[in-house]
């Protein structure tokens, strides 16, 4: 019997297709209790005697209530780490409440979350009011307005500490307060008091599933929670549902064994293996023989889908990005008018970014990424998952993604709607009313550097942008930077030292070009970079500064700052590739420039006092990436 190489390959593929077509077990359903629009899951429960009495909730007229210290608190929203509750005995929304109206301060299961921001009224001592806190979006009663008064975030720790009641603000002469929960990485508050929950560490109920990790609570002393690892969903506890593998398969969400195409019912697998094993072995021997006889031709390709009619790409399982929404391609196509050029924001080696409007009226940025094969698709899915878990005020938040368009995954970012840095640096081209003054420019540069340093040194695995440009930097209404367009096509497998150095060099070089464009207002092509560096070396900095800045009319302090930023850009180019001058160094010095002080060589704790690097230290452990040991 003789088989050609093509027919033997087809024969093997058909056998594999038959093996993978065995029906799999149905996905396990994540159990939970319902109350109105609420889904109650472990450790919370509605039934008596199911779990700890501390986590029992009651359901009345589709409303959920938590009972603490003989008081009932209406639950407004459930979070993975806490509950947003209303003030007790407060059926209507009040502009402010008495400082004694929320008497609970904490116990071994619950504590007042550090994510709460309070508005204090009629305070005699304004020293506790925090500048910048009022920039949060804190809606008032019903109308969405109202006087915020003195704004104080509980994460500040200066006037209020974990375990205190709100009555502690009386010593500042305050007469009332309101409260909002502002999740980390956002500036949008929800009215109410957020309570963090946790289980005592020494409790048997605190045992975590093997696919979960233990995180420490920040507002409950000695308390812990279980959080499922990436790619798994559930409550994470052994006493609860644990963690089930989660994925998107054939465009649908699947759980458990459904995500593993190699798992079959034991009996069916045994019978099928007994029947097909001899045939498979024979076919394998024939295939090996034919491959050895066939001359090698690197250009020959075999189109599996064309021959078998089976779409292997549609069977790829992607890990579920738990924090991001899954979009249909049609939604994003409609949002961008079929990806018209008029909606194009940026185009580079990291892909193309379009602006779009979703059906709910929100403006988004859609990053179309091109990849070459199935392996890159799986890798990109993993990287989107990783990036979507990072929260930083200058990182454009990932809203969702789309994986159902061949080898072109789409990532959907938030778009603040105030254009890109490119729009404001080149107002004539973008038809923006005016350009940016130097104060805004240097602040944006410092914010971008702080974010890039954070992603490179404070996340694991590290995230490098590699192609930071003006068009990838969105601006909000207050001209704060929101960076998007990250390169998601990193090669699989460990990188060599040379590859790491090359990547770091690209990262530093692209950032240097960004600084030079901020200074000059010019598009930094290779020949332009050379000319600019020659001018700077000759001491003719004023000749390259953007004419719209009117360099000679700037205050002396701003002219000195322009020179310092130009010096940072030069060192990024000269020493960024060998590690002598890194992103942390650039960020530190830009922070010093913005702060208006500090000497070269100051400690990172001082120079980053207003950056997210120090903020990260005070975050809950479950919000920070730590290397696995």
Q: Secondary-structure blueprint of this entry?
A:
Elements lengths: L4 H16 L12 E3 L2 E3 L16 E4 L2 E6 L2 E8 L3 E4 L11 E2 L11 E3 L3 E6 L28 E4 L22 E6 L8 E2 L1 E5 L1 E2 L11 E5 L6 E6 L3 E2 L10 E6 L2 E4 L10 H28 L10 H5 L8 E3 L5 E2 L2 H7 L8 E5 L2 E7 L5 E6 L5 H15 L9 E5 L7 E5 L6 H5 L1 H4 L7 H20 L15 E3 L5 E3 L13 H24 L5 H12 L18 H20 L7 H13 L8 H4 L4 H6 L12
Parallel strand pairs: 21-25
Antiparallel strand pairs: 1-2, 3-4, 4-5, 5-6, 6-13, 7-11, 8-13, 9-10, 9-11, 11-12, 14-16, 15-16, 17-18, 18-19, 18-20, 22-23, 23-24, 24-26, 25-26, 27-28
Helix pairs in contact: 1-2, 8-9, 8-12, 9-11, 11-12
Describe what is shown at a glance:
This protein has 629 residues and is of the alpha+beta class.
Query: Structural class per helix/strand content?
Result: alpha+beta
Q: How many domains make up the 3D coordinates?
A: 3
Beta content comes to 15-25%
What is the top-level CATH class of the largest domain? Answer: Mainly Alpha
The radius of gyration over CA amounts to 29 Å
Quaternary status: single chain
Helix content: 25-40%
Number of helices: 14
CATH superfamily of the largest domain, called what?
Transferase(Phosphotransferase) domain 1
What is the average of the pLDDT values? 76
Largest sheet, described in full? 6 strands, antiparallel
| CATH topology group of the largest domain | Transferase(Phosphotransferase), domain 1
